Amino acid sequence: MRKKATTRNKDNASLEHYKPTLKETLTILDKQYIQNSNKYATLTQDCFKGIAEKPPLTTALGRLLVHYKSEWYEELDGEGKRPEWEALNSEMTDDAENYLGYIKDGDEAKRDAYISKFDASEQESIKQGLEQQRRDYERFPADYKDAPDKKLTPEQLNLFGIIKELEEKAELWEKTKEKATKMLWWEDVVEGLAKQSQQTEQSDTETEKSQTSPPSTEQTETSATPATLSQNGEVWFMHPVAMVDYYMEGKKTETWDKVTNSRIALLHPKIRQHTLDFINDAESKLNLKLRVSDGYRSIEEQNKLYDKGRVNSDPIVTKVKGGYSFHNYGLAIDVVEILDNKAIFLDDKHRKIKEIVDIAKSYGFLWGGDWITFKDYPHFEITFGYKASELLKKYNEGELDDEGYVNIS
User: Fold this and answer.
1) Which DSSP symbol is given to 364?
2) Rg for the chain, CA atoms, rounded
3) What angle do CA 211, 214, 220 make, to 5 degrees?
């Protein structure tokens, strides 16, 4: 439904089938246009900016009430867990658990589940990599945990680091869910308020019986009807803050670097501003000058890279064929640091790699350094939930925008 609201036009003008919140929001946004102008608001930044100088519309949107389920209330299941949080396991730790289940226990079903999330063109090479890691793990000395730095080879030590990192990730998620469960205080508030209401009703009854003396200030305050809260944790509250970013002005339209600017201009329109903000934030917050060393790459160029080391004696530089890289759709970038006119490669040893990644992720980028196998530290991408194979299908079927990029709803 939300995707439909971001691509609204004359064929999708009616608000009849939208949920109440979306319907109300779009109704307000539509009022920025002259009636019968064949213009229809969408849930995009431009439409929100369009009402910034129309105080009545801005006020109406700011006062929009959102029906919201409190994060502090949820009925626990039979195991004392929060079902809605448990449903997030697949997003948070399934990959890690499938990887560990195969590497440590040899569970081939978990290996296949892990591989299935990758594009078909990558699955065989990833499978081979996992099988090699499994063989390496089986060669670990039985007592390696006593002194891994001394008892493991460099290759084994690297694998041990990956395993430890994923185990910590899974443990952290479990602790996060435990903490969330301890925060369930809404029901206590509701029960306390109900008790207060009972006391108020009793006080009101006694006040009605008393006709001989006027009520004191204390009695008046006691008799005031308290606010009531929904017992199922659903509340109404003001939510203008969530829309603040739509009104942000003065965003930079270029970076410090002409080379980067030219490469950003070739990226998919959906990620150009994100990339600009990422590069500019790295400069202003970290005093780092990052350059986009690679951005959009055509499918033909990707295939030429893939052929290197396969049709000639050059070293292999990529395992991805044309159409299966997010670079081919302008949705990925590689970056380097420029220091004293020299390019500094980004890897896990870079002095500010964590800060760089944090900034990139704040704009929605995924980082190649988070990949469990074949880590690509300079690589950042925004996939919008698509697999590369899905984008290739769109490309082959001609689902392109006015600039020739794959349509992303």
Assistant:
1) T
2) 28
3) 110
pTM: 0.49
CA angle 347, 352, 357 (to 5 degrees): 75
Q: Which structure tokens are listed for 368?
A: 């190649």
- Rounded Cα distance between 388 and 123, Å, is 13
Cα-Cα end-to-end distance for the chain:
11
Tens digit of each residue's pLDDT, the chain (409 residues): 556 667 788 777 888 877 777 788 888 888 888 777 778 888 877 788 777 767 778 777 766 655 456 666 788 899 989 888 888 888 788 899 999 999 999 999 999 999 998 888 889 999 999 999 999 999 999 999 999 999 999 989 999 999 999 999 999 999 999 988 888 877 777 677 667 656 655 555 554 455 444 444 333 333 343 445 566 666 544 444 444 444 444 567 899 999 999 999 999 999 999 999 999 999 999 999 999 999 999 999 999 999 999 998 888 888 899 999 999 999 999 999 999 999 999 999 999 999 999 999 999 999 999 998 889 999 999 999 999 999 999 999 999 988 899 999 7
